[in-house]
Amino acid sequence: MIELNLAFVIQMVNFGILVLILNLFLYKPIRKVLAERRQVVESAREKTVAVDAEVQEKMARYEARLHEAKLEAGNQRAEALKQAQIEETAVLEKARKEASDSLASIRTRVASEAAQARELLKKQAEALSGDICEKILGRSL
Fold it and tell me: Which sign does the torsion angle of CA 31, 32, 33, 35 carry?
């Protein structure tokens, strides 16, 4: 049977002190690092959403410009059929080229920004992992 004596009370006090020390020096710093990491990831997600919204906005503007170009070509076709066919071909070719160039530049920029974001996240993850290792090991790497 378990005896409740002074040794048991001392062991319980030692255990409580150990829990307090571990909480102060181990658990709280780890939680802080994890919270900071979560914040960095969330900000990167928000930036990604913002870039995606910007791309969608530019695509909508592109679609609107293309639609306007088609309407203009249709009006010219009504004025003079033969002249309108020649002008329509030129306008549509120009719009396709602009659209292709615009789309290519948007895709290039989005890819570049995504690569920059990935690189930034990679650097921050490396820095955070180094900080975590230093804190856990208690010495500089």
Answer: positive
Q: DSSP labels for 71-121?
A: HHHHHHHHH-HHHHHHHHHHHHHHHHHHHHHHHHHHHHHHHHHHHHHHHHH
Every domain of the chain and the residues it spans: 6-137
Distances (CA, A) of 122 to 31, 39, 61, 127, 133: 21, 15, 33, 9, 16
Integer Cα distance of 99 and 77 in angstroms: 22
Phi, psi of 138 (to 5 degrees): 75, 20
DSSP state of 3: -
pLDDT in tens for each of the 141 residues of the chain? 677 788 888 999 999 999 999 999 999 999 999 999 999 999 999 999 999 999 999 999 999 999 999 999 888 888 878 887 899 999 899 889 988 999 999 999 999 999 999 999 999 998 888 888 988 888 776
What pTM does this model have?
A: 0.36
